[in-house]
Structure formats: C-alpha cells, structure tokens
Specification:
Length: about 850
Amino acid sequence: MIGQAIGHYQITAKLGEGGMGEVYRATDTKLGREVALKILPAAFASDSGRMARFEREAKLLASLNHPHIAQIYGVEERALVMELVEGESPKGPLPFEDAWKIASQMASALDYAHEKGIVHRDLKPANVKVTPDGIVKLLDFGLAKAFTQQKESSGNAEQSPTLTIGATEVGVILGTAAYMAPEQAKGKSVDKRADIWAFGVVLYELLTGERLFKGEDVADTLAQVLTKEPQLDRAPAEARKLLRRCLEKDPKRRLRDIGEARFLLDDGRRAAPAPSRVNPSLAAVVVVLLGALGILAYIHFREKPATAPVVRFSVPGPEKGAWGTWLALSPDGRYLGFPATDANGVVRVWLRSLDSVELRPLPGTDGAGPTILFWSPDSRSAVFSSGGKIKRVEISGGPPQSLCDAPNATLGGSWNTDGVILFGSNGGPILRVPSTGGTPTPVTRPERERGETFHSDPIFLADGRHFLYFRHSGKPENQGVYVGSLDVRAEQQSLKRIEAVDFSPGYAPPRDGGDVGHLLFLRDTFLVARPFNERSLSIAGDAVTIAEHVGTSISRAFFSVSGNGILAYRGGTGGTSQLTWYDREGHTLGRAGDADDYLELALSPDGSRVAYTKPFQGAGRQIWTLDLARGIPTRLTFEPRSAHSPVWSPDGRRLAYSTLTGDGLYVQDVDTSGRADLLLSTVERNEANSWSRDGRFLVFTQLSDHPHLFGLPDPLGGGGRKPVVVATSEFAVMNGQVSPDSRWIAYASDESGKYEIYVRPFPPGDGRTKMQVSSTGGQQPRWRADGNELFYLAPDRTIMSLNVQAQPTFQTTTPRVLFPAPPTYTPSNSLWQWDVTRDGKRFLAIASVTSTTAQATVVLNWDAALKK
C-alpha cells in the first residue's frame, strides 16, 4: 500500500496490523496533515451491509471530542481515517505516581465517553499511547463494536486480535482475551463496567509489569478470566482497594463509574500502612517528643480553626429548561446566577441561593435574552446585557436600570468599590462606565498588528485600579491574560502576557489578607489554579488542577469563583441548540441535523444545504455544511483560531467567510477543494455579509468602534482589488444584504439611537438617499428570492415582514409581525441565527434545547486542596 492513495490520502508508511486491519501513516493532501489510515480487509469492505453499519458507528464515534481520545475523522472508501498519535504504549513496572498519571488520563477519557453512552470494549495497553509530552491517547475507541469481521484468533492471548464472532448482538464476544471482562468473555451484553474491568487489568500491569491473566493460549486465558480470582499482592497497597473494585467478577458489585476511581485511590492511600525502618528505641523517644509537642500545640494554638473540608453538590437548571454560556457567583459566595431558558423558552437570569434549594428567576431580566452576568462588589446588584444595553438590577427586587448602550456582544465584566464598571466587547476593547450609568470609554486598545481581535473578561484586583483581562488574538503567541490599569491610557497598557490561555479566566483574591491570590484557567478541560501576586503583578507559583470536565463555548469557559473559597462550574454543553424549520405562522415543521452548539447559519441559494458554525476544540468557531436531504454534516474549515460568517456564492459552489487569524476574507470550494483562498487581508476584524447575485461584490462589515459596510469588487478576480465603501457614518452600520436583482442593499444602523433597517441603492457610488423601512427597531435583514419581500429581526426577536415594490420607485408596506423567533443563548447583532427559503414560506432558525448537562457543580472550600 505504501505509495498508493485512498481518496486524497497518500500512504507513506506502515504502522502495524491487528484483528481490525492494517494501519498506515498517510498525508492528507487537502489539509497538509499526517493521519492514520486503518485499511479494512477486502472481505469486510466488500460487504455493503457491514460497511453501512460500520459507517453509522464511525459517525457516532467521530462525535467524541476529548483530549485523551484519538479523533476519528471519517470513512474514506475502505479505510477509517484517524488522528495520528505519535508515541509508545506504556509498559510496567512503573513508579506509582507515573502509573497513576497515565491511568488518570485514561479514566478521564472513559468517563467522558461513558457519559455519552459509548463503551470502548477493547481497552488494552496496545490501544493506549503516551505522546512525548506525556499526553495519553486512547485508540480504537468503540471500534470493537463497529467492526464485525470474523477472524481466527492467534494463540498469543496478549497479542490476540479483537474477538468478533458473528454479529454484534447479545451473546457475542467482543474484546481482547487478556483484558476481557468475565461477562464479555461469556458473550453477554456489556456496558461501561466492562471498560472498568479492563482499566483495572491495565492499571495492574502498569504497576507490576506483569499481565494479570496469562494463559498458554486464548482459551486458557479466557478460562482464567472466568474462574481465577485476581491476586493483587504485587500491586502497591494504596492501589489495591481501587483494583479490587474494578476487578469484581460480578458487574453488579464492580465500580459503577470510572469517575470514582480517584476517590477510591485516596481511600487506599489513607488506609495503606506507611513503611517503617526506624529503630524501636528511637521511635519511642520520637513518640514522647511528639506527645509533648502536641500538648504545646494544643495550649498555644487551640484557637486556630481546623481546615474546612471540601464539599461538592449540584445545582440543577430550571425544569425543562436549558443553560446559557455564563454562570457567576456573587462576591460573597451566597448566590449563583446564570442565564437560562425556562420551559416556555423564555431566556432570563436565574438565581440560586446556596443556603436554599429554591431556584428563582430574577425579575426584569427576560425579553431579548441576557448574555452576560456579573455582580456589584456588595453582592446586592446583578449586571447583565440585554437588547443592546448594559443593565443593573437589585436582586431584592425592582426594575432594571439601563447603564449604557452595548451594540456589540458583551464579554464579561467587573465592578469595583469606587463605582467603576468594566466590560469587554466583541470586536473591541475593554470599556469603562460609571455604575450610575453614562457613556462607555475605552481603557484598552486591541493591537491589530498583534492579531488581536477583542479584549474581554476584566477582573478587578484588590486595589480597584488594576485588573486582569483576556486579549484574544489570531496569533497564539499574543493570546492570553494581561494586567491593565485605570491609571494609563488605552494605548499604554502593558503588553506583558501573564498566562497563555484560550478561554475566559477567573480570579480568586487573597483570603488571608496577603498579596497572593489565584488565577484560574483551563488546560484542555482541566481547571487549574495558579498563584498570582497582586503586589508584583506576576505569577507566583505552579498551577494545580482543581476540577475536570469543565465546558467551553468559543472563548467562554463555564466556571466562576467567589472571594471566599467557593467555586462553581459545569461541563460541556452537550448540544444546546437545534436547527429547526418553521412556517410563516411560527409552527414547527421539523428539524435539521442533530442537536449541537450552533452559532450562526446560512442557507445555500438552492436550499439544499445549510452552512453553520459551531465551537470546535479550542479553535473558536469552525464552519460546517449540512446536506438537508441526507442529513450528512461535513466540516469545511480547519482554521487555527476561528472561521465564521459563512456566505454562499451565487452558484452555491463556494463559501466565503471571515477568520480571526490575520483578520481576512477567504473563499473555499464546498465540494472539491480543502484549500481556502485569501480574498482580502484586513487590519480590522470583519464579518462577511452577502454576495451579490450578479457575482460582482462581496459585502462585509468592518468591525471597529463604529462598524461600516464595504464591498469587495469581483471577489474571484484575483489580487489587487480594493474594497469600496458601501455605507459608513459616525454610527454603526452592519448586516448588509444585497437584493436579488443586485440593485439595492438592506442593512442595520443605530443612527436613530437604536438599530433600524435601512435600504439604499446598490452598487456603491449611487448618491441617492437611503430609506428607513423598519419602525420599531430591527437587525439581520433577509430578502425573498424574487426581491418582493424583506424580512428582519425585531429587538424582541420577532421575525418581521414587509412587501417591496422596486419599480418605478422603491416603496415598502408597513412592517407586520410573522412570529417570534425561537430563543437562543447567543442573541447577537452579528450572529445570523435564521434564514428563509427562496419562496419565503419556510424559515430555518437556531433554537435552544434542553442541555444534557443541566446542572452545575458547586465546590465549597475548593482551595483547601492547594494547602495540601
């Protein structure tokens, strides 16, 4: 096979072979990356029924997204395309701590997959790889079930192929003999407890260097699995309790969740006797001295309180509701607040007092949907953004007070004791406004030459003058946490990075009156805390892991920390939204694709496909397409940071989009090319809006303090083209949509004090006057394919319609209400979350659904672990 090609994968070397085929290294010629190809046996690949079933299983397995699980990219002809993992399989005996570092990462991967209902079924050292950086990756996850080829087993139980006898229903053996659970060896139906057994077998082997079951052949090995009680004397004492629970032959008595492994290990460590070689006489003296010291300690330090224990409990969201992407603990730790939908789909802020089981909505926070939440320093007021404004509300009751306009999506905020509020803005700087209200002014400036796209998540330090914040950049070397000051100008803020991070940080101030607090941030899905000295404004120690499986969305990390040792976090979104079809009255007609974390969408000109964006593995947003007839999703972009704002070409063969890497406009062939072509490199961040039907212009919004509309002439005509102004003013101008006859452009502007829809002649350069066509606010206009109807989104997310007559002069009817758009957690003026078919009769929109992780974990005294 070396030198041959399968699809666009060029095979370069053989890596190995086993019961499920041969494995080769290959180059993805479209994306220029190395992959692993598992070539399926010809007899298997020629069986259409088996291949169809295999492809269905592979699609499910490809949904696994975890740092310790090797990714499945897809099926190509008779090959499975997988992530290429460089590294070696671990071999024992290893020191206990080294073995546990490997096992804990294995457990994290298994726990993640088990929560999704997926079982590995073939866990063994050969399917574990440790990279040169010490990262563990599990291979062949779930493939034992997907693969149904019959194959004779070898006599070597350790190297035996995966046993697949017949089809994969109950009564079939799937797995590898030496690591197979008893119920698996009997051919019974298995669940996650089979993986827990195999985990125990592998952990024993890492600790001792010996296989637990080692018969002369496969049959003898299976007999030992079924009849021999595991002898664990050679394993370290602290691991035996965990091993015994993993290796119960009766699955009903076995450890039920791999996530409990760490707790059993801690129990074992406490119970394990400490080795002693101390002289008995010396030991007696030490005992006497320790007793005396204990008495002195009691006398002199008896008033010192004992370290409070770490306590964890769960906080559910509203019944039949769904979480948003924010959660915020009050500074005093008494309240947890978060945006969420209720059973009726209304988005509002919810509060949970931690000394109560009651969950209540915060009055006055419903409507357009709050997108952020932070607190006053006295924990009496909550601040949120809604309807393009920053608002504050007393949690004891009363109507919200508008503090300032916030036309762009608001990204985090902080309020100091001097009455200064800071908040981040999508595409812009950190802004400052008095807590009594006023006009926001910038305190930072995104440095475009450094690839910076926006600043977010300010957090005041104890002095009330300095603050931590997140600089988002398309250049990884510049992205991370920085320190800002209210006492310098925006352009003078320090460019010294404190910590490299990909998601929003948190900060726990010092609790002992000292100078050292803790910066909290994510590494993969692990939440870590790192000491930070507020006096020197620098890192003051190593990072310590304090929580696992913390979820993210684009640049958001789902956690919050108070000033008194309380932490709250929740897991991944698990699919918080659904592409849903509606008629003109708002009746649900059906769904498209699976539940996912959809952010924006655009229907193709012929209505056969939809392009959409969603978060992807720390790379911001990436663009996918969905074949609406077949329900098949395909990933289109592989940008290092973020690809967004998809716009279809008039013929539906290409997609233009914007990126956060180099702030460029790109175009990519949807069907035949994996390479994106740069159309325009810009200093300012931009968002693609629409492509005129005649193909002459690609319209985009340049995002700055006041967004403007530009048009790129002849988008596919090669280099040297310069964008021309479409609409600009001292106010924001965005959401440009060219009419089907390419003679008009509809857009949104806030020149009247709120966003309204305007129409003006197109192409650029026509001096005729613009016309306001909405009356009560509007954004995100969409044209019907014949140009005789214009739709837009009202401030309360109602879809509006007006009829258009373009000849002899441009005229419109009075706007009329069609139906309320479904609620979503990311209401934004720049995320296009709905579209309409050519005939104007059906609407595709992103609708929030109940989250599969509808609860948060609250940890009391989380920092007690740091003292250990």
